[in-house]
Amino acid sequence: MFDVLAFLLEEFNDPDHCPARDDLGRQLAAAGFENEEISDALDWLDGLNELNEGAYLGANDGSGMRVFHDYEISRLPSDVRGLIVFLEHNGALSPAQREMLIDRLLVMPDDEITLPTAKLAALMVLWAQRAELPVLVGEDLLSALHGEPTMQ
């Protein structure tokens, strides 16, 4: 599923240029992805598209600190929770986008919730929201697509 999502990010800079689900499924199959992988990724993406930022709009109005619920702590590894806090603290995610990211992570199986998949999920949330990334934060998130950057 994550290879399909990474492919979508690389192929479609703008979600508005992404084809309809059936056409996209055929395009992904032609690119060599398996049907189950395509279906899982498109279902995940449909769930993301169904999340209207308006449903989380109240999160943007608050000024308090976000505390993770016991269920979230049990499902989201500490490095993933740290990433979420880091992204919000550095202006890459609004509180509403943070909640969207948490929602999308919690629908994943436990063994798939890792730091690289959380970075990819964050990119997908921002992509769907057509959000701009701070440069340094964006480079860190893009490492989920291209591997860790190397010093030269």
Automatic annotation (TrEMBL):
<dbReference type="InterPro" id="IPR007456">
    <property type="entry name" value="Smg"/>
</dbReference>
<comment type="similarity">
    <text>Belongs to the Smg family.</text>
</comment>
<protein>
    <recommendedName>
        <fullName>Protein Smg homolog</fullName>
    </recommendedName>
</protein>
<dbReference type="Pfam" id="PF04361">
    <property type="entry name" value="DUF494"/>
</dbReference>
